[in-house]
Structures are given as C-alpha cells and as structure tokens.
C-alpha cells in the first residue's frame, strides 16, 4: 500500500524535473507528439493519460487554440477524397489536396462533428451524420444540410465557451 508524505517544492523539483519549453512540444505523457502543417498554421498533436488533444498554432503568431479529444492529421480514410476533411473517432483527417487551404474555421467545423459523435455515440453518428455527409460532400448544398449546420454550431459553441468572441459562418 502506498503512503502519502509531505514534500517541499524544492525536493519535488529534484525528484521530478520540470520540462524545458522545447521539451514540452516534443514529449507529453511519455510519448512523442507530432505536428501537421496546414494553410495558416500548425497542429501539434499530443498524447496524454487523460486523453488526446491537438493544439493549433497560427503562423501569424496569434493565440493558440486547444481542441480537446482529437488529433489532426493527413491520414485519410479509404473512402475519403484527398480534397476533403472528415472526423471519426477523434481523428480529424485532412486530405493532402485540402491541407494547403485547411483553416482554423474548418477545424472548428470538424471539431463540431467530434462533439456530435460524443453525444450521439459512434453507431448513430455514422448512420445519421457520417454516411449522409459522404453522400453530399461534393454537392453544392452540402454545408446547408442539418448535420453540417449542427457541426458548425457545436464547434462555434465550443469556441465561444473557451475563446469568447469567436464566430465562424
């Protein structure tokens, strides 16, 4: 059985060294992080014992944005076009042709799909959102479909909760 003890910060610093800033971007939770560059910035994806997350660092030096629960990467799904992005099981997958103009706003929208899946569950999300989205992705009214509007709204709500004043579409 473990016992609790009281230790000073000086002792703790010796036992658990603090990571330098450049180490924080390289190692989190004992595993390597990885980055993915898009149109206006870079995503750094982290593994953490409490869950994965991705941080967006804009190339203009503006404020970073944390997307809790997801990773952003360029590994597309077999049915996914290289000029699209999609979210499934906490992976926001951006096609190689889309990465050069994929923006923070696109991420907010895809994060909204992640939030949909969290609320609906995987089966219902795939059935009600994923399959429909795949069918309409190249149609002109794709962004006006209820599941796309809902994803955008959820993403905006997340941003407004943690980054007040943000709004997209």
The rounded distance between the terminal residues' Cα atoms is 55 Å
- In N-to-C order, the SSE pattern is HHEEEEEEEEEHHH
> Number of helical runs?
5
Largest sheet: 4 strands, antiparallel
Biggest β-sheet: strands ordered side by side in the sheet: 3-4-5-6
Identify low-pLDDT runs: 21-31
What characteristic shape results from the CA principal axes?
Answer: globular
Overall radius of gyration: 19 Å
**Count of structural domains:** 1
Structural class of the secondary elements? alpha+beta
Which range best describes the helical content: under 10%, 10-25%, 25-40%, 40-55%, 55-70% or over 70%? Answer: 25-40%
The whole-number mean of residue pLDDT values reads 82
Tell how many strands the DSSP assignment holds: 9
Report the portion of residues in β strands. Answer: 15-25%
Structure overview:
- With 169 residues, the protein is α+β, with helices and mostly antiparallel strands.
- It has one domain.
- It is built from 5 helices and 9 strands, in the order ααβββββββββααα.
- It has helices at 9-15, 21-24, 104-120, 122-136, 146-162, and strands at residues 27-28, 31-32, 34-38, 41-46, 53-58, 65-68, 71-73, 85-88, 91-94.
- The strands form 3 sheets. A 4-stranded antiparallel β-sheet has the order 3-4-5-6, with no helix packed on it. The protein has a 3-stranded mixed β-sheet with strand order 7-9-8, covered by helices on one side.
- A hairpin with a 2-residue loop joins β3 and β4 (41-46).
- The N and C termini lie far apart (55 Å).
- The model is unreliable at 21-31 (pLDDT under 50).
């Amino acid at each position: 059985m473990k016992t609790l003890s009281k230790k000073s910060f000086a002792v703790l610093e010796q036992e658990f060294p603090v990571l330098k800033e450049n180490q924080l971007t390289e190692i989190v939770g004992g595993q390597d992080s990885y980055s993915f560059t898009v149109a206006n910035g870079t995503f750094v994806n982290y593994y953490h014992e409490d869950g994965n997350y991705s941080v967006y660092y804009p190339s203009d030096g503006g404020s970073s944005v944390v997307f809790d629960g997801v990773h952003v990467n360029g590994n597309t799904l077999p049915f996914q076009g290289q000029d699209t992005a999609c979210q499934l099981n906490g992976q926001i997958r951006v096609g190689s042709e889309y990465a050069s103009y994929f923006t923070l706003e696109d991420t907010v929208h895809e994060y909204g799909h992640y939030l949909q899946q969290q609320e609906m569950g995987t089966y219902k999300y795939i059935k009600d959102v994923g399959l429909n989205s795949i069918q309409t992705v190249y149609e002109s009214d794709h962004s006006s479909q209820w599941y796309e509007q809902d994803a955008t709204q959820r993403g905006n709500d997340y941003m407004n909760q943690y980054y007040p004043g943000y709004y997209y579409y």
